[in-house]
Amino acid sequence: MLKNRDIVITGLQPWNFSLGSNIANIAKTLSKHNRVLFVNYAFDRFTLWRIKNEKRIQAFKNFRQSGQLQLENPNPGLWVFTPGTILESINQITSETIFDFLNKINGNRFAREIQKAINQLHFKDFYLFTDNDFYRSLYLKERLKPSLFIYYLRDNMIAIDYWKHGKRIEQTIIKKADLVMTNSEYLATYARTVNPNTKFVGQGCDLELYCPENIGLLTEEVTRIKNEYKLVVGYVGALKSIRIDLELLSFLSSQKPEWAFLLVGPEDTQFQKSSLHTQKNVIFLGTKNENELPSYIGFFDIAINPQKINDVTRGNYPRKIDEYLAMGKPVVATRTEAMEFFTGQVYLAGNYTEFLSMIEKAAMENDDLRSESRIRYASQHSWENNIEEIDRAIQEIKK
User: Fold this and answer.
1) Degrees to nearest 5, angle at CA 340 with 209 and 314
2) In a 3-state reduction of DSSP, which class is residue 234?
3) Is 195 in contact with 174 (CB distance < 8 Å)?
4) Residues 159-171, buried b or exposed e (16+ Cβ, 10 A)?
5) How confident is the model over 111-151, as pLDDT tens digits?
6) What are the residues facing 293 on neighbouring strands?
7) Residue 29 and residue 16: Cα distance in Å, rounded?
8) Mean pLDDT of 261-274
9) How confident is the model at residue 296 (pLDDT cuts 50, 70, 90)?
10) Contacts for 187-196: CB closer than 8 Å, 24+ residues apart
């Protein structure tokens, strides 16, 4: 287990991400035996304007005006820092020359802010751990001079059109890394073409949260669904059309009007406009707090992950799979290269008709023994075990 280190973490997800995040769980687990500085992403000008009415923006502005560091200490050994700088909004710039010039300015601003927090906490000989943040963190190795720079590749972000310069910049930061870690073999295979010091370390699950003992009461509006439908099929997570197959959900719900399909999580525009909202047996429950999610999963008869198959999802290790299994639930998911990792534990479907038949099979075969087996399997994927894998990867490259 990694112990007695100072560790600085940067990433794309904020500390209080509503659906939970790998990097926040890693930070919490590391902080049990290390001092950890978790850096929220720095705001850019467009984002500040777009979400200007949110409370966190006013808090940011107040701290910035006061000149104080926005540094919180939620747990012993763990500090969460929100940089006081404002970055330029550059992602839509097509010129590589102009983009690189402004991105370097952003990188310098970002590094100066982090250095203030490092100085405040008297961090020494620290590790820098960057989670998929290839733009803002591109120059941190040179500016902060960590004793070890780790790039954590847990999602194929460059497959999303939003990142105009994604592939070029990500490959640059991968080359710089002393160690690249991935949560799927698919991503590890890609990263090794750029940096041979790449290790697949898997990922973890919050087993204290996701366990059958944490099932609480739901509203009467939700619980009465059990009386109205023969089977409750559920999904928990962000409903993003680039990842989740709208047509598959439409097929399943239209083929089985006697089944309820519960979708828990925020919707993107395509989902909000979809015809699923006109189908009586498709119930959108919206965003819930993370500590409520075990109760919803516990309510499902079958948990699903109906992914699209594309460059974004092929290498994606969905954290929800371990969460479903930790609750003892039968899981049906789209077959992808990364999902092969769960062969024998999850029902994997290659097409729409097979997905439907797999739900029927999962419901028919479900029993206490299988539920206990799923829980045992998920228990191997604790965040503590994940940190041990990370430590082994670090020690291997140090030999």
Assistant:
1) 90
2) strand
3) yes
4) beeebebbeebbb
5) 999 999 999 999 999 999 999 999 999 999 999 999 999 99
6) none
7) 16
8) 96
9) very high
10) 187/153, 187/154, 187/155, 187/156, 187/315, 190/153, 190/156, 190/315, 191/153
Question: Which residues, other chains included, contact 204 with Cβ-Cβ below 8 Å and sequence gap of 6+?
Answer: 22, 25, 26, 29, 322, 381, 382, 383, 384, 385, 386, 387
CB 146 within 8 A of CB 119: no
Of residues 79, 91, 89, the one with CA closest to residue 40 = 79
Q: Which of 141, 159, 161, 153 is nearest to 193 (CA)?
A: 153
- Evaluate whether 99 touches 165 at the Cβ level (below 8 Å): yes
* Three-state SS at 262: strand
- Taken in order of first residue, the domains within the chain and their CATH numbers are 6-204+382-398 (3.40.50.11010), 212-379 (3.40.50.2000)
Which residues have CB under 8 Å from 101's CB, separation 6+?
A: none
Which structure tokens are listed for 237? 């997570």
Distance CA(84)–CA(77), nearest Å, equals: 22
Whole-angstrom CA distances from 342 to 183, 191, 374 are 13, 22, 11
Read off the pTM: 0.90
